[in-house]
Structure formats: C-alpha cells, structure tokens
Amino acid sequence: MHQTVSLSGATAARERRRWRLAVAGMLLSVLIFGSNFVISRHAVLNGLSPHDLLALRFGTAGLLLLPIFLRPGLAKCGGVGWKRGFWLAVTSGFPMTYLMLTGLTLAPAAHGATIGPGTVTLIGIIGGVVLFGAVLSGRLIFGILGVLSGLACLAVAGSTGSTAGTLRGDLCFLGVGLLWGFYPLLIQLWKIDGLKAAAVVSVLSMVYLPFYFLFFFRGFDVAPWWVLLLHALNQGVLNVIIGLWIWGWAAHVLGAASVGRFPPLIPVTGTLLAIPILGEIPGPLQVAGFALIIGGLFIASWRRPGRTPSVAQPSIAHQGEVPAAADHKS
C-alpha cells in the first residue's frame, strides 16, 4: 500500500515537472515566433534583402530536413503526396514567407506580428466551424469583432501615415495571414505530423534557390559571415525546426484548452520588442489597433482547461512564422 502511494506521488510529481516544462517550451516558442518579425525587419533595414532571408531560411531548413523528406521515398513527397505537399508549401512555404519578408521592408514589425496572427486566428475559427463542426459561440464572435476592428484601425493608420508603403506592407501581412491560416487547418484535416510537414514545406521551397542564385544573389560578402550564419540559424533552425517542434510537443502535454492561451502572446512579444530594438513607437491609432487585435485574440482563444489534457488543434505558431492552438501544425 505504501509503495503504491509512493508510486502515485512520484507519477504526479513527474507530471507536474512535465507540465511546467511544457509551459516553458510554449513561452520559448512565443519568443521565437514573436521576435522573428523584429529580427527579420532589422535584417532588411540593414542590408539583407527578402530574397537573402528566403534563401537562408529554406536553404538551411531544407538541407537539414531533407533526410526526413526522403525517408518515405521521393515519389511520396515526404509521405504526404505531391498534391498535398504543394498546398502545404503554398500556405506555409515560399509564397507566404515572401509576402512576410516583403511586408517587413515596407511596414513596421509590430504590424506584421499583429496582422498576421490576427488573420490566422480568424481563418482558424471560421475553418473550425466549417470543416470540423466547432460551435461559433458568442465569445468567439466577440473576439472576431475585436480583431476586425483592430485591423481596421491599422488600415486607417497605414493609409494616413507618413510612410507611403505602410499600407502596402499591411496588405502583404494580410496576405500572409490568409495563406498561413489554411496551413494548420490542412495539417489537422490531413492528420500530418508537424515535423514531417515542416520537412515537406522546406524541401519544396528550395525550388526557389536556383532563381535566387540566377537573379538575386549579390555575393557572399553582402554581410559579414556571422550575420549570415545568425540569420540562417534564426530563420531555418529556430523558426522552422526548433520552434515548431517544441510547440507541437508542448501542445500535446498541455491540451487545447491551455494551449489556446499562448498564441495571443506572439503579437505582444513582437510589438514590445520592436520598441527598443527598432525604435518603432506606435501612434495612438496603432496602439488602439494592437490592443483590439490582441484583446480579440485572447477572448477568441481562451478556454477553461478540463481535468484531463486533450490533444491540441493546429496553431498559428509556424511563422513567425503565426499559431489558434494546434496539434500537428506546430
């Protein structure tokens, strides 16, 4: 009897440690994804082009994940099939990332960190209702209205701001959200493992590399070697591999109810880091837009945890790449 109680206590303590580690992992992923907007914006403002970052991102991740892609055989496209692989690459690979990085050359990083995840969450909610029979509750509707109001505030601020390209950059971020939002839905619909999906997206996006070297390559001295290495690690390793891996594991440990509380921290992180690192001080209308979007995300994603963890649903976490909570996505 005493031995049984001891075993139960040890199991409970182990589960508590696992839960705390999962929370820490989620917070680390939030930091990775939220800071990527700021780091990428800093890169394009200091000599690197979106094309350079694209090549570093998918060249690094694609080569590292190539063995996972090839394991089931080339004909099976990483085990998901070429048709599904194509749509995964469109929604989370080169097209989406190109829009994100182009937007960061035109608009503040805080806009990207807010508009992208906000749009992704809206699509996740609508997709959950249409594809998976989720209930569109009053709380979700209220959260959606908050996000839409915040996006409208940013649109007005961008159209009347001193920078002519801000509105175009915001439209790029809107395109990011529209593409990126379908990625976790497809992952959930097709029940694809997150790391396998990342391998498919990264390897297929390497098709861009020949075009990069033919038309956009400016030489390896475009920046110091350590700068190129830093951005290769941030783009290809931290965001595509480590961030998604940690997020996916933590999502399974914590369950959908708890995991849904973390994605709204991504725009908070990106917005706050942009102030000291980039000197981006938002105006009153932008602050109102950020607050409405972040508040709407919290309202839409907040769930009361149940007594037993459940498997999480796909999340916007992949960009930073932007995770509603997710199962295989992250």
UniProtKB/TrEMBL annotation:
Pfam families, per the entry: EamA
Region (Disordered): 310-330
Location (main, coarse): membrane
Localization annotation: Membrane
Membrane topology summary: Multi-pass membrane protein
Regions crossing the membrane: 21-39, 54-74, 86-107, 113-133, 140-159, 171-190, 197-217, 223-250, 262-279, 285-302
GO cellular component, one term: membrane
Residue ranges annotated for the EamA domain, each copy included: 22-154, 168-301
Keyword terms, alphabetized: Membrane, Transmembrane, Transmembrane helix
Protein name, per record: Permease of the drug/metabolite transporter (DMT) superfamily
